[in-house]
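Fold these two proteins, one after the other.
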Amino acid sequence: MKPASLSEGRRGPAQIWNSAPQLAQIPLVAPTALVPSGARVVVVAPHPGDEVLACGGLLQLFSQLEHPLQLISITDGSASHPGSLVWPASRLSVVRPQESAEALRRLGMPLHSLKWIRGGFCDNALAGREPQLSQFIARYLHPGDVVFTTWCNDGNRDHDAVGRATATACELIRARLYELPVWAWHGPVRQAATVPWPRARKVRLDTWSVARKLHAVHAYASQLAGDPEIGLAPILAHVLLERMREPYEIVLI
């Protein structure tokens, strides 16, 4: 995750996620149409928390359908508060994975059976390590896996790099790839044309799935706090939390 300069408001400012007219035209897709019966689901998250922001609802659905699940956390998120004495990298390297574990528990994930790989790569520096990223990700994929990761044009350098590296790994291993916009939704409406709308599909979430996802996001105390002493705003800004209330998640097929 990365800091965002997003203004306050119940529904937030006019952004793609809440104002683009194309949103109403996105066709629905069932989870069973995305992942064949018995297939393993792999989520590749650039930073701790991205698995919830990108697909916290989908994780719940696939768990309920009893698909084998694997989460790959590429970084430990320790560079999210540069210059902070309250949240130094040494503290975040411990806290961020703990927050992710609590968030997954709140989602209802079976932590006893969830295979969780931690990459240990440095965040904010992934663009220069794409070949190594691809090799690392490919090591944990199997042919026939269905892989979800951040969109390669999401607008965050780490998200984009992980998207490209995962695509390369999936092509090598012959796994199926779906991409998930995260920060791209918070661009101004005038940038809506950059979203590949023909590839977009909505997966409906029920009220309880949305509630669990919101509860999980609030496990990330370090991302909700920021550091006022150095003028660092919360990474999880109010408008992003508002987007988490939407009764669907969008997948690029």
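Now the second one:
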Amino acid sequence: MKQVAIVGGGISGLSVAYALEALLVPELSDIVLFEASSELGGVIQSDMWQGQVLEGGPDTLTDRPFGVLDLVHAIGLAHRLIGVRPGAQGTLVYGSDGWLKFSGQEARAYTLAGGLAELPHAVASHLMRTRILRQARVQKLSWDTRGRVRVWWERGVLTADAVILAVPAPIAADLMRPLDPDRARRLEQILYQPRAVVTAVYPSHAFVDVRVYTHTGFMTIKGAPLACSGASWMTTKWNYPGARDHVVLRTFWGPPGVDPSPWSDRELIDRHEHDLTRALGPHQPPEFVRVFRHPYAVPQVPSGWTDSQPRVPYSSYIGMVGPFFAGAGLSDCVHRAWQEASRVTEWMTASGTGIG
């Protein structure tokens, strides 16, 4: 019987656990998932203010094959799906010449009525054979005398036959170094750019020029006199249930423009207001603002980078999932998680040895 440890309780780690349970592998004894914080979901961060959904991370579930919408349907969350608000116009582009329409094709998209944080919570509630440990930061990994992996965390040590790292590449590199230094060096090649999101709630008539926020948002391009990389009108974009007494607007700070990490929350809010005034004109101040920060928001994967998994004389499986493999979208992460779960299943079924 095999025991699996999953490091990371974001959507990738939770999806691996769900997929392993769904595959009904007889060789699998149990799964232990370690999450360093008190909350599941990783970059998915939702909040509420007077019935208004506030998103601090991704807000979109994209309709792609074998992706996140399949997971939503599998866990019985489809009744919570909502689409783009009827009549909402597409994304705008803001540049040195003012407003332009976005020329790209926008994919069919959905969100969840109570915020995307409903998704990780629902996945966790469907895990019957997975033990979730919150506030359980994994400190290191090592081999034991039988070639299994010892998972050292703040309150003990667990020995596992298979370990799936569902954490950002720099953290995975630190954990991988005692097990496979070459693989750790490859992970160190992946750099991250931080991002911050300022989500603000305004009175429904806060902005004089209402033509702009009949669109779902805007993105800035080179030459634009703005520091933010774009904005999204959540109450225009999504057909949330309930009354619309407020306008929820969020701006994005980070690549390809500035590094927001040195700025305090107050500085970010001031810059948010400055850019909105410049783009939309004078407006009433927000009634509520929250700043969300993502230090590992955008992985910069070198061209041609691959994660080879060499076979070494140990009877354990070491796998990895996350947005640096095949795309940063939630569908990409879920798809990759199912692929990794299938690889673990094949390894268990074959009772093979080695990594990969």
